[in-house]
Amino acid sequence: MINVFGFPTHVRSTFLVLIALIGWYPDITALRLILWVAVASAAVMWHELGHAFAARRLGASPTIELYGFGGATSWRPVGEPSRSQLIGVSFAGPFAGFVVGAAMGIGVAIAGGVGSGDARYFVLIVLWTNVGWGLVNLLPILPLDGGHILAELLPGDRATRTQRAALVSIVVAIAAIVGLLSIGVIFGALILGWIVMANVSSIRAERATRRRADLEEQARDALHRLGAGDSGAMGDIRGLLDELRPDSAPFRAVAIETAAATGNTSGARDLLQSSPEGEALPPGLYALVFAIESDGHDGVTELLEIFHREPVARHARWLALALRSAGRLDELASVMRATGVDDPDILSEAASVADALGHPSTARQVRSLGPDPSAT
Fold this sequence. Notes:
elongated; four-stranded mixed β-sheet; mainly alpha
């Protein structure tokens, strides 16, 4: 890790190796290879510094990493930057290269030409790595700077803009691949092929995330309706459980608890029995359903043992519900005391259930077991 103009910078060894491979050709001289590595590395660094200085103007503290075929500037926005500010940070990298290219162009004009031999080679690679790469970077393809600029110009929220930019990136990249293959630039086509696959993966991941968020919203709604006694909610819950697999166990557990707590023991039992192989449910849930089905004749003893072994908030909640079904909710505080529970979260959970079940005096007794009873 080095410090460049106040920016922490990490240069990976693979960066220098790959830069050298990009510039190598069979009859290149040692001097030209050294010139290439030095100029190309400096151009990439200067490009990232352009981003970093622009981000610093927004109050961020950027870091730079040079790796693979290029580099990346990481920064965390202070507040919510505007689209124009984000475009400015993205454009600052290529712009920094254009400034160097313009300076070189002025120098060449003053000198009367690009010269010959190694001097000509030096001028050409300075122009290519600063201007040529800058123009390539402005193509509307994620994750290039042009792709990020495109994402800020498109309509929609941030996630929607990124998805739309990824779709445009795929189309543009495929067109560019066809063009590069037609002129025999295999290496560039391979890089763009990797970019296409990365954007396809990004689109799929975002769609999966949105679908998951939609399912979770539907799950919350179905649980609310189940708790309110909606007879159609159970069918929706079964459908959601199928869609949420293989991660449906947490939702199934909450649905079983909700059904049992509202007296829908047949629904709770059905959800228990339909649990697929490999989807482990907490033993306390079975005991809770037994307790409510039997009006407290079964399951309460098992829940008492479970709570003594593992006094956690969910076990306290299930125990309170089971004691209520047995008509013994007034024992809740003494159970907590006998177990030695003084964790505020556990006591608060148990007290909240007692309050919800219409036993405020039991709730006060439970809260009084906390480390600061006066707070209640």
